Every structure is written in structure tokens, then in C-alpha cells.
TrEMBL record:
GO MF entries: hydrolase activity
Broad class of enzyme this protein falls into: hydrolase
Pfam families from the UniProt entry: GSCFA (PF08885)
Alphabetical keyword list: Hydrolase
Name recorded for this polypeptide: GSCFA domain-containing protein
Domain GSCFA positions: 21-260
EC number: 3.1.-.-
Length: 318
């Protein structure tokens, strides 16, 4: 007897393996999946300028990197004793103006190289709601706790999102025509926007993404992974949410990861992933007696396992 419906997900035509170089961009759910990729020692980079929630923010970042643009004094502002940039997360904010600009440009240069070298992009959109800075008449990625009266809240239309998604794909493929792009919508509920407004926002994202990936230009280079749909339909119970009842809890994250693994990661690396997981768990082991013979043997075997994997995959470091 089945007590839930399971979403049918087609296996990827371009599965990820340990030769893949992955760049993850987007909402906090992108971070959740990237942490799994990091845990299993894939070659993965995630959100070099911090979490980005909406399509226009991701498009602008890719455009900056691909075009080789530089951040200047005009791109930053002073607020609450720190310098900020509306295009990046507050994690990068700095009390030193020159240091912030230097760091931003160093990151952009690094992203340019990563875009050229990546085999896979995983792009996770969180919302269609955006904030437009009234003074500059530009949509920001992060408000940095600047007073709300300085912004106007807008909902991106399906057409605007379609244009942004298409531009993002074209920008990436202008410098890396062989890479594949996996789009997904974050299952995190943005209830501060309102219950109806959150669903409206997600609907616009889903409609736009599917319109783009089904075009002749994109259907051979893009795929969709249904993170949002898994949360809404397979895990439709509050026991799969964190205490805030908005974010997926660890059980949900683990389950969505398993669905991603079985459909988007090559079966040829499953045994290596098991070896990595065995090592990761062993590294967390705390012995009762560190000097005992049994523990010394345990450590010796663990070192052998690590050496074997690091010799096989030079990029792995434990």
C-alpha cells in the first residue's frame, strides 16, 4: 500500500561524475545541495558572491563575469558603518572601501574562469519578487537592511523571467558552449511575501523556466530538476520542515538529495561516493582510547582508504 505519490524524474542525459566541474548559484537551497556535493568531494563551487534569490541577480552576476566588467566606487555605498554592494550578499560587506572593491573584482575574475571550466551549472531560483532601488531605478540582489522606503517591491512577469533565463544561458554558452545547465526552483517558502504571493512567485518561475528549456536552442543543453515539486507533493507534511515551517529540514534535504543522486549523478561513481561517505563518517569517530591497538589499526586503515581515493582523484582532500 502506497501512502504517497512519487514524482517520476527522467534520468539526466548529462549525469555528473567525478570528472565534472560544477558551479551552483542561487537561493539557500542551492547551498543545501552544494553542501552535499562538497561532502561527497565533487568539484563544486557555490555562490561566490553569496546567496542570490532571483533570476535578474544571477543574470547580472554572470554578465559581469563573462564581460570582464569591474566594480567601481559607483557600485558601492556606505550604510551602518560598512561598505556594501547591492549586487552581492552582505557576507561580503566590508568596513574598508578599497578592500571591498578589490575583493569583488577578484571574485568576478575567479567566476569568469570557473564559468569557462565548468561542465555543469546548477541554478536555483527562489523568488520572482524583487526590490527596485528608487534612487538608481535598478533592481537589487540584496537590500542590506537599507530602509524599505528606498525601494519599490515588484513581481517579475513570466516574460521578464524568460528573457533573463535565456540571457543567462546565452551568456554562459558564449564562453563555454559545452557545459550543461540544470535549473531548479527552491522549495523554501517565502511567506513574508504572503501565502498567495509566494505561490504566484513560484508559478512565474516554473512557467518561465519550462518555456525556456523547451525551446530549440535550450532543450539539448538544459534540464529541470523538480526540487520544489518534490517538497510540495512527495513530502507534503510539516514534519519535513524546519522549526520555522518554511525551510526543508535535514530529512527533506537528504531525501531531495537522494532523488537528485539517482537521476542526475552517474551510477559509475556510486561506489566511490560510498567510499567517500565511509571516510567522512570515520573522520567523525571519537575513540574511547586514542592509544589503543584497535584504534591505531582503525586509523591506519582509514589513512589507506584516504590515500587510495586521493591517488585516484587528485582534487580530493580530506
Amino acid at each position: 500500500m502506497q501512502f504517497r505519490t512519487q514524482i517520476a524524474i527522467s534520468k539526466s542525459n548529462y549525469p555528473i561524475d567525478y570528472n565534472s566541474k560544477i558551479m551552483s548559484l542561487g537561493s539557500c537551497f542551492a547551498v543545501n545541495m552544494a553542501e552535499k556535493l562538497d561532502y561527497f568531494k565533487f568539484q563544486n563551487s557555490c555562490n561566490p558572491v553569496g546567496i542570490l534569490f532571483h533570476p535578474l541577480a544571477i543574470e547580472k552576476l554572470i554578465d559581469f563575469a563573462v564581460s570582464g566588467k569591474q566594480f567601481t566606487d559607483n557600485d558601492i555605498f556606505f550604510h551602518n558603518e560598512r561598505w556594501h554592494c547591492f549586487d552581492v550578499h552582505s557576507d561580503l560587506s566590508n568596513s574598508n572601501k578599497k578592500e571591498l572593491i578589490y575583493n569583488l573584482n577578484a571574485i568576478i575574475k575567479s567566476i569568469n574562469q570557473q564559468i569557462k571550466e565548468s561542465t555543469h551549472f546548477i541554478i536555483t531560483y527562489g523568488t520572482s519578487w524583487v526590490y527596485r532601488n528608487i534612487k538608481s531605478d535598478s533592481i537589487v540582489a540584496n537590500c542590506h537592511k537599507v530602509p524599505q522606503k528606498q525601494f519599490k517591491k515588484e513581481l517579475l512577469s513570466v516574460e521578464k523571467i524568460k528573457k533573463s533565463v535565456t540571457n543567462t544561458v546565452k551568456l554562459i554558452h558564449a564562453v563555454n558552449p559545452d557545459c550543461k545547465i540544470i535549473f531548479t526552483v527552491s522549495p523554501v517558502r517565502h511567506i513574508k511575501d504572503g501565502f498567495v504571493e509566494n505561490q504566484w512567485s513560484k508559478a512565474n518561475l516554473i512557467s518561465a523556466i519550462h518555456s525556456v528549456i523547451n525551446t530549440d536552442y535550450c532543450k539539448l543543453i538544459t534540464e529541470y530538476f523538480p526540487s520544489y515539486e518534490i517538497m510540495m507533493d512527495e513530502l507534503r507534511d510539516y514534519r519535513f520542515y524546519a522549526e520555522d515551517m518554511l525551510h526543508p529540514n535535514q530529512v527533506a534535504i537528504d531525501y531531495i538529495w537522494e532523488r537528485f543522486k539517482e537521476t542526475s549523478i552517474s551510477e559509475t561513481v556510486f561506489s566511490a561516493m560510498d567510499e567517500v561517505e565511509s571516510i567522512q563518517k570515520s573522520l567523525l569517530h571519537k575513540p574511547f582510547n586514542p592509544d589503543s591497538e584497535s584504534h591505531l589499526k582503525f586509523e591506519s586503515k582509514l589513512r589507506e582508504k584516504i590515500t587510495k581515493l586521493e591517488n585516484q582523484y587528485s582534487f580530493m582532500k580530506f
